[in-house]
């Protein structure tokens, strides 16, 4: 087979894995990712999105690290199992996805160590915290002094769930502050769980007014690694800040793609 022409290679998009949930579809186990992540990765990050199955026994971390240029960890109605961070039992309202836990959590240290750019949203944000040894508070709204970070009235049109809900303070000099061009902005909020103890080696990027960590990066990683508790994927049409997050992620994935291409040349 002839090698690809250099001009053709220049037009290839970076390959981005998007985590999925294990669900049931007409009585069959299935793997699902919400369209907002797929669309933002394709249209804003200008990458090729590939849905990663929630299949622990089928995902080989080293093979994946050698094959992709980025990974998006999606939000989900489900939560990381408390057993994964040493809590005795799930909260009464908690929906779990043990297949996703088993598939994603073991992958993350290998992918980050291999230099794969990472963008983690909501549940994905919580997965990274747990993978780095942190813990989660299962019901932030029940804690004294905390805001109610849940999505609110479910009778509203789904688009309204993602309206801005509260301010966040962006740490001066942080990646997010540079992307926003400010140290304060507003974000949406659709989560029950939140960070209790921040994982070792994670660097705070943003805080809510009640002191809850809303974003972090991985201090030891030289590549783009950003985890946010809110949902930028649903605001790429009307928020320059949301678009900037996915654009910066796309730029990092293209840098990774060039690096991989040189390694295999």
From TrEMBL:
<dbReference type="InterPro" id="IPR029062">
    <property type="entry name" value="Class_I_gatase-like"/>
</dbReference>
<dbReference type="Pfam" id="PF07722">
    <property type="entry name" value="Peptidase_C26"/>
</dbReference>
<dbReference type="InterPro" id="IPR044668">
    <property type="entry name" value="PuuD-like"/>
</dbReference>
<dbReference type="GO" id="GO:0016787">
    <property type="term" value="F:hydrolase activity"/>
</dbReference>
<dbReference type="InterPro" id="IPR011697">
    <property type="entry name" value="Peptidase_C26"/>
</dbReference>
<protein>
    <submittedName>
        <fullName>Gamma-glutamyl-gamma-aminobutyrate hydrolase family protein</fullName>
    </submittedName>
</protein>
<keyword id="KW-0378">Hydrolase</keyword>
């Amino acid at each position: 087979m002839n090698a690809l022409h250099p001009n053709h290679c220049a037009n290839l998009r970076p390959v981005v894995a998007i985590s999925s949930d294990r669900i049931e579809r007409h009585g069959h186990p299935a793997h699902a990712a919400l369209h907002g992540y797929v669309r933002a990765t394709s249209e804003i990050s200008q990458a090729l999105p590939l849905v990663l199955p929630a299949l622990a026994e089928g995902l080989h971390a080293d093979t994946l690290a050698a094959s992709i240029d980025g990974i998006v960890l999606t939000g989900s109605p489900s939560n990381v199992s408390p057993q994964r961070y040493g809590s005795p039992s799930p909260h009464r309202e908690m929906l779990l996805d043990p297949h996703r836990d088993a598939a994603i959590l073991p992958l993350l240290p290998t992918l980050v160590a291999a230099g794969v750019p990472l963008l983690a949203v909501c549940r994905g944000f919580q997965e990274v915290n747990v993978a780095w040894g942190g813990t989660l508070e299962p019901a932030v709204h029940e804690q004294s002094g905390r805001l109610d970070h849940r999505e609110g009235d479910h009778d509203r049109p789904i688009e309204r769930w993602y309206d801005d809900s509260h301010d966040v303070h962006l740490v001066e000099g942080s990646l997010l502050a540079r992307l926003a061009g400010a140290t304060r902005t507003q974000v949406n909020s659709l989560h029950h769980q939140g960070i209790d103890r921040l994982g070792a080696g994670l660097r705070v990027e943003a805080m809510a007014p009640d002191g809850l960590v809303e974003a972090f990066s991985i201090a030891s990683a030289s590549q783009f690694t950003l985890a946010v508790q809110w949902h930028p994927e649903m605001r790429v049409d009307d928020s320059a800040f949301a678009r900037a997050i996915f654009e910066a992620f796309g730029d990092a994935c293209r840098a990774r793609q060039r690096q991989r291409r040189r390694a295999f040349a």
